[in-house]
Amino acid sequence: SLRGTGWKTVVHLAKAANSCMIVAPNDAYWYEIRDMQLDGHKEDQTGGNAGIELLSATTPDGEMASCGVPFIERVLVRYTYGHGIYSRAVEARHSQCFVFRAGGAGFYADRTDMWYTDCTVGESYSHGFHFSSGASECRLSGNKAWWPGYGNSRGKFAWKIATETLLNPSACSYYFELYADHQQVVNCESQDAAAHGFYIASNSNRI
């Protein structure tokens, strides 16, 4: 597990590293990533899938088969070349995380049974929250995605004025692909998305 002392604990990605910053491999389980800030320095990168990449898919001796059950809590992820947090760790818990100006989606869910609670995405290049066709039965509560598709250079904010930059007109705050079914979405907000606030191609959801 990795734990800082708050968002003043800052991890920087080295210039031209072109990689993810934290990767939890397939055989990792029951771990925690808490109380830190990750700065991906996307202006110095030409590759990298995500700031945090959760690949864990098992527990000891096959107990709770295919469930990594990680906890990602109070983590700020900024300026990643790719997604902020990419997860295919079943039963991953994301709580009170903030992703700012990711070069992909803020949060990208690629497996079932993810939890997103009180998380925020600001000015992601792609969708704020993206649920692939394999990401069914997820739960979202108290989240917000603002200005997906908009952005500006480091240290400058769009603030929806004349100097704003529209980077991706198809970016949505919440994007559910076909077959990303059986979602539960409660008390979530979209603000000024470049495209749709909620794009839902899946079925049997509770919104």
Describe it for me?
By secondary structure, this protein is an all-beta fold. 0% of the residues lie in helices and 36% in strands. It has no helices and 21 strands. It has strands at 2-3, 10-12, 22-24, 32-39, 50-54, 71-78, 83-87, 93-95, 98-100, 107-109, 115-117, 120-122, 129-131, 139-141, 144-146, 150-151, 165-166, 174-176, 184-186, 189-191, 198-200. Strands 1, 2, 4, 6, 8, 9, 11, 12, 14, 15, 19 and 20 form a twelve-stranded parallel beta sheet that branches. The chain starts with a strand and ends in a 7-residue tail after the last strand. The model has no long low-confidence stretch (mean pLDDT 91).
Structure keywords:
seven-stranded parallel beta sheet; 36% strand; twelve-stranded parallel beta sheet; 207 residues; mainly beta
Task: Describe, in short, the structure shown.
The chain has 207 residues and is mainly beta. It has strands spanning 2-3, 10-12, 22-24, 32-39, 50-54, 71-78, 83-87, 93-95, 98-100, 107-109, 115-117, 120-122, 129-131, 139-141, 144-146, 150-151, 165-166, 174-176, 184-186, 189-191, 198-200.
